[in-house]
Amino acid sequence: MSVKKNFINKDRFKSLAKISENEEKSENIVSRFKLETDENTIKVDIDKLENAPKDWNFYRKLPDDKFLELVESIQIKGLLHPIVVWEKEDNYMILSGHNRARAYQKLYEITNDEKYCKIPATVKKDIDDDTARQIIVDTNWIQRQLSSYERTKSILQKYVQLKQTRIKGEKTRDIVAKHLGITGRMVQNYISLNNLEKEFFDMIDEGEINIKQALIISKFPSNIQKIIIENREALDFNMDLLKKISDKNDVSQILNMLTKKEKKEYITVRYKIPRDKKQEFDRLYKEFIESIR
Q1: pLDDT tens-digit profile of 161-209?
Q2: Same domain, 111 and 22
Q3: 3 state SS for 251-291
Q4: DSSP 3-state assignment of 43?
Q5: One domain for residues 56 and 45
Q6: Are 162 and 175 in contact (CB under 8 A)?
Q7: I need a labelling partner for 34 at 20 to 30 A (CA). Which of 129, 152, 161, 218 fits?
Q8: Residue 239 belongs to what domain range?
């Protein structure tokens, strides 16, 4: 007989309704990508699940608090939507629902309830690697709030996939834009960010730099970007300054150009001097001004 442990914090229950609504909305949008959850749905042993390769599923796990909310929601309401898996020889690769699968594993670990040994899953059989990767990108794109890095990687993968199947005369960036519901210019900008060091993506998300600034920095060689990152606290990423950098390989020029300049505080001083000393005063004044520039 299984021993159930109720670990639900009832004060958190109200927030679960919102999670459920978002999940419903996300899954409705998934239908655009033909991921029908009522087709080939079976219960899969959680021990037979395997994660997709990291270079396919480069998305972050849910933060601990959001993961706990998901676990609580599943225990209270059950799994509202099956995960999507690709049937392999001995196991099932998760294409959509990595967090839901983890939640089931956690529930079984905590409650020892056998109903969490198997998870409802929509099984994909006759697909290839490209289709599997596309499912991962599509579902994460519509279900999650992605970081700048994740958006860039998603768009780049989509671009590579669709470029192979595009019709002659069509721009790949426009096809990608239509699939993802964004503009062609946005697609082009994110593709250009592919050469950007990962730390700069964090700076974008934290509001330290914007996309336009990042686009200029992405044109710098990788070693120069790393030097900029090391000195980031002392640098000013002003757009006008970035545009003035003529040699993107000249470390000295870049650091000198971007180093924050100390702002001087000025005051107004008025003196009365004898009329016959004016010429001498003007000379001394000019020399002084030159010395402090």
Answers
A1: 888 877 777 889 999 999 899 999 999 999 999 999 999 999 999 999 9
A2: yes
A3: HHHHHHHHECCCCCCCCCCCCCCCHHHHHHHHHHHHHHHHH
A4: strand
A5: yes
A6: yes
A7: 152
A8: 196-258
